Amino acid sequence: MFKPVTEICQTVTGVSAPVLFLDTCILLDIIRLPYRYTLDLQSCAAAKNIIDNSSVENRKVWLATSETVHGEWEANAQSVQSELDAEISNVEKTRSRIFSIASDLLNKPYDPGHNTEMINLGSALLSMSEKLLNTCEIASVEEKHSYAGMYRVRKNIPPAKRGKPEAQDCEIFETFLALGHALRQNGFNDRICFVTSNTNDYCLTKKCLVQNDLDKIEAEFVTNLQWAGAIADGRA
């Protein structure tokens, strides 16, 4: 399941296409979509588009991530789905009370419509998120990635900051940088993108705090799935 950066590099350079390296939050945001109002509703369609464009038969993009992201997803995906299921249940309870009160108050029946709990949306979104993860080339974490990540923590280099070490985020980012560096060293000339919605740790207002790192490997900072999807099908 997990591959050395060198092996992923060999695979990717065999068929040139943009590389999208996915952070944990991007994957979990798919499950959060119905109740996280800052997320664009087109994120689910974008995820499907990205998966379609990464198929072996129709390769327009490479998806990559790290062993650390895989572990974080495994640890958190079910609880995020449970949060969504609880939100949907609360919505249904509120709707039921609204229609019951309206019927009594206005003396006429109201049809509450479809019960959204019956859709099993949480399960469907979890499956979509997992499919996106499993489509990725997953880089194993090497000691040098962990050491480089801990250096960021000690020096408060983003995504780490004083009082907020973010050790796993640093390890993820260093794995991405290692992959990007290996690709460029092997003559890869297509786009390399780090895809994360975690702008709190990677940005200050509109300034990307890791731009110098990205510039060294000619990489881009992408903050949502719609943008990533546009890159995948050549619209951006």
Strand content: 5-15%
Helix amount:
55-70%
The whole-number mean of residue pLDDT values reads 93
CATH class: Alpha Beta
Number of helices: 10
State the CATH superfamily name: 5'-nuclease
CATH topology: Rossmann fold
- N-to-C series of helices and strands: EHEHHEHHEHHEHEEHEH
Could you give a short description of this structure?
The chain is of the alpha/beta class. It has 10 helices and 8 strands.
Detail the topology: elements first, then pairings.
Elements: E1 2-3, H1 5-14, E2 19-22, H2 24-32, H3 43-53, E3 62-66, H4 67-106, H5 121-134, E4 137-139, H6 143-155, H7 167-185, E5 192-195, H8 199-202, E6 203-204, E7 207-208, H9 211-216, E8 219-222, H10 225-232
Parallel strand pairs: 1-4, 2-3, 2-5, 3-4, 5-8
Antiparallel strand pairs: 6-7
Helix pairs in contact: 1-7, 2-4, 2-5, 3-5, 3-10, 4-5, 6-7
Structure description:
It contains 10 helices and 8 strands. It has one domain: 5'-nuclease (Rossmann fold, 3-Layer(aba) Sandwich). The mean pLDDT is 93. The two termini are 31 Å apart. Strand 6 and strand 7 form a beta hairpin. This is DUF4935 domain-containing protein.
Keywords:
single chain, 10 helices, two-stranded antiparallel ribbon, DUF4935, Rossmann fold, 236 residues, DUF4935 domain-containing protein, alpha/beta
